[in-house]
Amino acid sequence: MGKMRVASAELRRKVVPADAAAALIPAGANVGMSGFTGAGYPKAVPLALARRISEATAAGTPFRVSVWTGASTAPELDGALAEADGIELRLPYQSDPVSRRKINAGLMEYIDVHLSHVAQLVWEGFLGHLDVALVEVSGITEDGRLVPSSSVGNNKTWIDQAERVIVEVNSWQSTELEGLHDIYYGTALPPHRVPIPLARPGDRIGTPYLVCPPEKIAAVVETDRPDRNSPFTEPDDASRRIAGHLLEFLEHEVARGRLPANLLPLQSGVGNVANAVLNGLGAGPFENLTAYTEVIQDGMLGLLRSGTLSVASATAFSLSPVAAEEINANAAAYRDRIVLRPQEISNHPEVVRRLGVLAMNGIIEADLYGNINSTHLMGSQIQNGIGGSGDFARNAYISFFLTPSTAKAGAISSIVPMVSHVDHTEHDVHVLVTEQGLADLRGLAPRRRARQIIDRCAHPDYRPLLEDYHQRALAESPGKHTPHLIGEALGWHERYLATGSMRA
Amino acid sequence: MGKMRVASAELRRKVVPADAAAALIPAGANVGMSGFTGAGYPKAVPLALARRISEATAAGTPFRVSVWTGASTAPELDGALAEADGIELRLPYQSDPVSRRKINAGLMEYIDVHLSHVAQLVWEGFLGHLDVALVEVSGITEDGRLVPSSSVGNNKTWIDQAERVIVEVNSWQSTELEGLHDIYYGTALPPHRVPIPLARPGDRIGTPYLVCPPEKIAAVVETDRPDRNSPFTEPDDASRRIAGHLLEFLEHEVARGRLPANLLPLQSGVGNVANAVLNGLGAGPFENLTAYTEVIQDGMLGLLRSGTLSVASATAFSLSPVAAEEINANAAAYRDRIVLRPQEISNHPEVVRRLGVLAMNGIIEADLYGNINSTHLMGSQIQNGIGGSGDFARNAYISFFLTPSTAKAGAISSIVPMVSHVDHTEHDVHVLVTEQGLADLRGLAPRRRARQIIDRCAHPDYRPLLEDYHQRALAESPGKHTPHLIGEALGWHERYLATGSMRA
To answer: Which one of the record's GO molecular function terms can you name (chains A, B) (predicted)?
Structure first.
């Protein structure tokens, strides 16, 4: 590295072990932590806090804190604290198996918030007082500015709003990340807000550093642990078919003159389907693409490397170990073409709408009329959360929702008569894609949407069941605008809960 | 009036009777008509078109057109065309009883669209070709510019996008409306969009005129009929109690330092509850208020008159006959404090978010977890549509949803275990108010929301039933994040359809 990570002499005097920093977090505190999709979360203090909580519990005085983050983190944060029963309330997004189990058992409270809304909700004071900010950075400059690490998330807001700040300086992160970030300090509470001056995905409108008065920093902890970095898995057949339908559609839209030849800025979630789409874009006819999205995953990095993607804006990396090594070795080479921003800007409705983002997000289930459930299994069990899908889909130029047509080896149909929870309403859903095909719902009244979705997206095993429901609803529904048999609209979910399968 | 309404000599030569103009609309055409909440809709040509359709139908060659508007219109437009079975497809909003009946009978197609989205959907080409624009104005200047009338709606987009334009010049509208409107011509399709330079509700960022090349104008029709103008009704007791809870909350938020003393820009729907809220604001402690909303109804006008409201921005008037007379007699006096804009700007997510609007909208039903149904009765019958409620609520500083706790003389509870259709998801709902009380859902996980909604908003007749459902769901739901008994979640609606009442 050849560079001192904590270059500020004043802040070097605040370096302490993780246990000492964890002791600064009082019982009942609201703690704003860094971390977004397994990148840039604090790696030592949460573990020390979990130990402290476990010891307190063993001694008969359990305590809990509320944990606010950017999005999902990792076992060292969510997993350890949930395991210790140390989390009172969690927001705005998680994907941790231990947390999920505790939430669904009613043992942990969870608020599932649009990722773009968190910063303003906290600033407005609607979520209560923020006691502590716990933020990972990749370094501290001589004059005390903080160089962000592999995610930005809500760090600016946590540092601004918290009473005291704990900084983890992670030497695993590349020193060459310095200059890659863009922290916009121009937001305000109304009536003092002004336009956000961002008109292209790569625009830089802020400073590369997080700013914090040194006297507010209560402790600095040094770490050297890697980000979570799940291994990359090759797209499966269903994902490749979903990607194929989507790419054919995009080519068609370009041919019709409804999209520019280099498309519009891409937003893509993570996972198998997203990887397949990004792979497909790399192999396809498109050039000079841009991305305005939440996370830069392996597929995006590949497109940047090949030059298919000219620039990518996000709030975090979400990389496999191999790709993380590549970034750590070559951050300087990517610095001109990658911008990491606060999530209030990466996901801001104003900017998403202005840029005309093509939003591509996975789902749990869709119904005949195009309503989307992104969060709940069988209406009551939270899976992960809405994340940024609403931020992007609601204001997208075209909103795509992607899913295999079945789950659990065919026991669950992703297309149901009525979804058991709604995260994206019929008003916000443009295109639905499964491995079976693509339904373009733009400009279609509800009954026509149902026709498209049954014919093009449903799995053949469930198509006759959907058709049967639809035909009987057309005949018997009291309203024919959105025909439903209200007594059996959720019958497929009921059947699954009773028998383990949605099949009749 | 003392002023020639069609001052352009070139366009005076295009004046024709309504029947001749209606003959320019071909069968199967997509027609973009003016009109928003019963204001500024064309008053002669739709009636002539309906006659032509009826005659054709009687002669054995029926035809239909698709009707796109700003929002709801009046019997002379929606009523007459629906009665003649002349509408193939209707968007983006309607509240006409004849249309509603035909839509729910499956005889007319209807797409229920966010009002801010319509202009871009058309411009993007996602809804097909716009054949004819049919737009009411209050006058035409000597050089051919069009002076809008009592609504702006989507008129700019219709005129820009249509192949030919028919103009109705209505001499009932005040000539002094000239200068009151602000038509922003700075929108673009991505990737060419730039920030909308509007930072305060009263900012003027465009021109007072609609611009149309004269050669595109195929016909000019002169009319003199008043807008629909439903009479004003005094708020009932339930509405006054809803308003009381809301005003108490606002005072509390100011006292807590979470709202400025003059609040933030108000958005309010129409109807009895909205009138009660506006009356209450007039009687309350607030001064120097502003409005950034869709419509200016009697209550807003009253607040402007008394000086409580310093400026109001909207896209249309929606006035009683008495208030319409007042505007017609005194438009010049209001011109500095009222701005009517295109609905893509009045409802624009970018601007709504920036200004920090306080969004207040009525609903059909809410559920225990704060999901809102604004559009469908018993899951299948459309009532009116989502209108602008999503535009405002989704990006509001605080989103309020207001409803009496029961409907149909108590046979329907507005608070149900699970809503039968979702227009606003749990992620977007801040505050729910009924005459029983107010539930502040900000920062609450789902089970806590249920507790608040049952205790504070439900009608006492239904509270024990809700409590029973909630307790059994807490005990038996497979997921305890959003506890539901999926087999009976829609049971209240089923019971109503079977028995005419949601009571057990």
So the answer is: acetyl-CoA hydrolase activity
Distance CA B162, CA B157 (A): 8
Provide the shortest C-alpha distance from residue B192 to chain A (in Å): 8
Distances (CA, A) of A58 to A19, A89, A101, B154: 17, 21, 22, 66
Of B105, B190, B395, the CB nearest to A264: B190
Taking the Cβ of residue A493 and every Cβ of chain B, the question of whether any pair is shorter than 8 Å is answered with yes
Apex A409 CA angle, A406 and A411, nearest 5: 65
Nearest to A381 among B265, B481, B489 (CB): B481
Distance of CA A463 to the CA centre of its chain: 32
| 8 Å CB contact of B479 and A260 | no
Residue with tokens 């709604």, as numbered in its chain: A422
Phi, psi for A367 (deg, rounded to 5): -110, 180
The answer to whether residue B449 neighbours chain A at the CB level (below 8 Å) is no
CA dist B75 → B41, B95, B222 (Å): 10, 10, 19
Nearest 5 degrees, angle CA B449-CA B454-CA B457? 95
Question: Could you give the ipTM of this predicted complex?
Answer: 0.97
Q: B472 CB near a chain A CB, below 8 Å?
A: no
pLDDT tier at A1, thresholds 50, 70, 90:
very low
- CA A242 to chain B, closest CA, distance in angstroms equals 22
- In the numeric block, the tokens 């496999």 are attached to A320
For position A3, what pLDDT does the model report? 64
Q: Encode A279-309: b = buried (16+ Cβ within 10 Å), e = exposed.
A: bbbbebebeebbbbbbbbbbbbbbbbbeebb
pLDDT in tens, B97-133: 999 999 999 999 999 999 999 999 999 999 999 999 9
Cβ neighbours of B386 in A, within 8 Å: 425, 427
Chain A residue whose CA is closest to B256 = A125
The model's pLDDT over A382-423, given as tens digits with 9 standing for 90+, comes to: 999 999 999 999 999 999 999 999 999 999 999 999 999 999
**Does B354 reach chain A within 8 Å, measured CB to CB?**
yes
Mutation for A interface: B380, B424, B490, most A CBs within 10 A? B380
pTM of the predicted protein model:
0.97
The Cα–Cα gap between A171 and A223 comes to 6
Give the tokens for residue B130: 């716009």
